What we know:
Elements: H1 24-28, E1 31-32, H2 33-40, H3 44-52, E2 59-61, E3 64-67, H4 69-83, H5 88-94, E4 95-97, E5 105-107, H6 111-143
Organism: Phreatobacter oligotrophus
Pfam families: MerR_1
Region (Disordered): 1-25
Amino acid sequence: MMPRYRHPPRKTAVPAAAPQTASPEAASDPILISDLCSEYGVTARALRFYEENGLLRPRRKGNIRLYSQRDRDKVRLILLLRSAGFGVNDIVAHIAEGPGRDDPVRIALGPAQIKAKLDENRALLQTTEEAVTLLETWLSAVERGEPIP
């Protein structure tokens, strides 16, 4: 069994839609890893990590990775799932691809999986809110010159 690895939560917003390109032809042109990093605000290491886990399969020209529009779509979905709290192993299991190159890449989650992740995120939110309240109480005490309760 492969150990689970969880990246820290993303600090940048995930694009709601695929970025617009100058022309439909440009969208289908392969792009370099540096361009994909700039487009989505991710590191090259993150993209290579996703490739190592079978999420991306860029074409290669020597040592150069060339990412297709399909790869770009997958990166967008990966980032959406990461922002929702899914780990890489979960993402591998929940990205669905059709057999053809032109089939869309999509997230394949059932209601039970979505509800479980929603409950997990709500619990995390509650814990975070409690921590914020505690820290605010401590800060207020320290600013008044009192010991932390």
